[in-house]
Amino acid sequence: MKNTVNQDTENPSSNPAKGETGKAAAESVFETALHARSERAARPTTRVAKAPSRIRPTTKVKGWFRSHETMYGPIFIFHPKEEGGFSDEPVFIFPDLADELRAEGSLFENAIKEVMGYLIYTVGGALSLVMVPLPDPATGRHHPANEQKVDALEAARHEWKRIDWNKDLRQYDDFTAIDKPDEPHWPEDISEVSILSRAFGERNVIKDRDDPLIMKFRGKA
What we know:
With about 220 residues, the chain is α/β, with parallel strands linked by helices. The chain has two domains: about 5-40; about 55-215, no CATH class. The chain is built from seven helices and eight strands, in the order ααβββααββαββαβα. The protein has a six-stranded mixed beta sheet with strand order 1-5-4-2-3-8, sandwiched between helices.
């Protein structure tokens, strides 16, 4: 007996109805995707802005650096000696409180300093706020080492500088770079509020006499 095969059943491609159904399904998937893409593009998007990196507050200058032309201050900082178990990073202190505590005696006079801040950019791309004490009120002059530092910070507005402490001479060795072509990338907002906020934040600020750092300094922590 001769077997016969229904070609319409065995070969889907020969079935016009089935072929049309597959094509319609494929078109529907991509049409849906394209439609969804258009709707997504039309929706308002919320972009997460990257928070500005912190600027390190310090009294030291390390490596090659440039200085911004803007100075910040005068401000008061709480900066006891490191051997007392305190951080080497200065802490901002409110002016009225600084005056009140310094009036108590030399303990606070030595720990609280009135300073000017210099925004510097290191050759590695880091930003720091370098703080230098104001001149002595009686003489109107800086300590010789601080005077050297100020001279270098001011010169660094236009050229790359480096100062290394010389223990034997008890002064800085001052260097000027001959070939440092890269220009600093300064923050867009260089206002005093912005720079102090990035340097000290909300936590590294002393507002009252009961602050834990003040209590620790008094030996009452």
